[in-house]
Amino acid sequence: MSAELKSTDAGAEREMTDGFHLIIDALKMNGVETIYGVPGIPVTDFGRMAQAEGIRVLSFRHEQNAGYAASIAGYLTKKPGICLTVSAPGFLNGLTALAHATTNCFPMILISGSSEREVVDLQQGDYEEMDQLAIAKPLCKAAYRVLHAADIGIGVARAIRAAVSGRPGGVYLDLPAKLFGQVMDAEAGRKSLVKVIDPAPAQIPSPESIQRALAVLKSAKKPLIILGKGAAYAQADDAIRALVEKSGVPFLPMSMAKGLLPDTHPQCAGAARSTVLAQSDVVMLIGARLNWLLSHGKGKSWGEPHSKKFIQIDIEPKEMDSNIEIAAPVVGDIGSTVSALLAAMGSDWPAAPADWMATVSSKRDENVAKMAPRLMNNNSPMDYHGALGVLRTIIKERPDALLVNEGANALDLTRGVIDMYKPRKRIDVGTWGIMGIGMGYAIAASVETGNPVLCIEGDSAFGFSGMEVETICRYNLPVCIVIFNNDGIYRGTDVNNASSDPAPTVFVKGARYDKMIEAFGGVGVNATTPDELKRAVNAAMDSGKPTLINAVIDPAAGSESGRIGNLNPQSALKKKK
User: Fold this and answer.
1) Closest CA to 64 of 42, 90, 30, 35
2) Residues 238 and 262: beta-carbon distance below 8 Å
């Protein structure tokens, strides 16, 4: 049963309701306004009905991209992004994004239809039969199955609270097909729904941990603050800026924390990264983890072994000492913790050591000066720096635009070249460093913020989600995609000397990605110089029309694996030659 269950008299109460309506009502009661997904059995009618009830339902071409959209929606809003998929293969496609959300601490709920338990448990071969709950559990923060309509309210509430409380993450909600059509009394159904109160309660740090952290920071001769994407997610922007400026300490923003304070801020050490990592003696981590992105807090990039003391602010106690000893662990949510640190610093906090600040400033200015000429060339075909030089200016002139970025060289070089000026405006591949997030992120960024989006994509990275340009055109979103096309993965010059097949890293020479979006009514541009690229991007951002720019990059430009070539094993036999 579906809409027939509702009275045609707007003033009358429904006598009966069903699983379809209860799920929709539960989501709406908890502020869900958007669902990202792919329609199909058994969730097709649910998508139609949710749309009819005022929820925006965006239909994608692949579940993985819908999942990435939901994950970044969670990051941008601090509310769980919702992804809806069909069973089995559709669920598995969405599961990649759910695991990605969990790893990156993005709140997300993957809702999938599934086969009936009695058939799955006896392995009787149902349509798309799969024990989805068991598969999801190891890859997400929590997983729940709802079997009875009366439990839908509790199921949705548990999923929301699990997704956003503590360290946020991905949650799986399994809804067997029969659940949607279950009928129950409408009044009882209403009473069964749950509005989640305070889903992510503040976690106040202990006063002792605050005093310990400040004592370690005050003892530093070469202090450093590292801001991670957890700090950006917290939306405690004013407090974080006040802490950084009151301390006077240089800060290093991780990729998605860029813009919490402008990259042009006098304390920003982004252009002196190697110097501050190697020479600092006390490091305060705010919403950043000592994982591979920071060389696990050890190794050559960190200078002398065991020469530093670390202060770590994180909501998850188990994160402390995960790689090295943390001298001053502070467990609490970032907003509460930063506010507590500010209050305890008082009005007479000493200035950061002048010689250290001079060292950082000098190295930063030196590196910026070295880079400047490379960003000003107008070569044809373009190199990465010439192309990024004009995009850097465009972002400076449009600081409210969101920048989506993925690739190898396209990712690494963009991160270093393009300054960000406002928080949560740069979103990229995150902790796993994966490819394929681009179009899903772009769609959600546009939908959730209403702002224009600029995507800077490597040609390889774009291939993972490129069909979603049709989705962008279908919803007429203000997204401008720039594909750095150098004819291959890393670069397009690799040669296969063994056969007539192209080398594994080489794509079709001279491909025209701009023609793809034209097929769906968008604007396609082929840009061969930085000047052409600048004109095309500005026109796209001014018009708000879906646009794809094929930026022709020298096939020889780029390096193997971007800046993580050290993670690429080399053949022992090759080394012996």
Assistant:
1) 90
2) no
Task: Quote the tokens at residue 374.
Answer: 């490379």
Instruction: State whether the Cα torsion 233-234-238-243 is positive or negative.
Output: negative
- What Rg do the C-alpha atoms of the chain give, in angstroms? 25
The position carrying tokens 């239809």 is: 113
Tokens of 129: 């039969």
Cα–Cα distance measured from residue 78 to residue 559, given in angstroms and rounded to the nearest whole number: 36
Q: Is the dihedral of CA 321, 326, 328, 334 positive or negative?
A: negative
Tokens at 503, concatenated: 């080398």
Q: What angle do CA 430, 431, 434 make, to 5 degrees?
A: 65
Cβ 80 vs Cβ 109: under 8 Å:
yes
| Cα–Cα distance for residue pair 64/66, rounded to 1 Å | 5
- The CATH superfamily holding the domain 207-365 is TPP-binding domain (3.40.50.1220)
Give residue limits of the domains in the chain: 3-192, 207-365, 377-552
Q: Give the bridge partners for 18, in sequence order.
A: 183
Per-residue pLDDT band for 328 (boundaries 50, 70, 90) equals very high
Q: What is the CATH number of domain 377-552?
A: 3.40.50.970
Evaluate whether the domain defined by 3-192 bears CATH number 3.40.50.970.
yes
One-letter amino acid for residue 457 of the chain: E
Instruction: For the beta carbon of residue 73, count every other beta carbon within 10 angstroms.
Output: 29
Model confidence pLDDT, tens digit, residues 413-467: 999 999 999 999 999 999 999 999 999 999 999 999 999 999 999 999 999 999 9
Q: What's the CA angle centered on 374, arms 483 and 511, to 5 degrees?
A: 25
Q: What six digits make up the tokens of 349? A: 């906090």
> Taking a C-beta distance cutoff of 8 angstroms, is the pair 328, 216 a contact?
yes
The dihedrals phi and psi of 116, each to the nearest 5 degrees, come to -70, 145
Q: Are 152 and 19 in contact (CB under 8 A)?
A: yes
| Per-residue model confidence as pLDDT tens digits over 493-502 | 999 999 999 9
Q: Which tokens hold the place of 509?
A: 């020479």
Summarize pLDDT for 184-242 with one digit per residue, the tens: 999 999 999 999 999 999 999 999 999 999 999 999 999 999 999 999 999 999 999 99
Q: Are 294 and 252 in contact (CB under 8 A)?
A: no
Determine what percent of the chain falls in helix, strand and coil, rounding each to the nearest 5.
45, 15, 40
Please give the C-alpha separations between residue 526 and each of 390, 481, 485, 511, 533, in angstroms, as whole numbers.
16, 12, 10, 10, 8
Alpha carbon distance 288, 358 (integer Å):
25
| DSSP SS3 for 401 | coil
Token pair for residue 337? 């913790």
Condensed to tens digits (0 to 9), the pLDDT of residues 339-351 reads 999 999 999 999 9
From the list 203, 175, 212, 195, the residue with the least C-alpha distance to 18 is 175
Residue indicated by tokens 């150098």: 486
Confidence of residue 1 (pLDDT cuts 50, 70, 90): very low
Does 563 score more than 70 pLDDT?
no
Tell me if 418 sits within 8 A of 388, measured CB to CB: yes
Among 183, 184, 196, 181, smallest CA distance to 27 is for 196
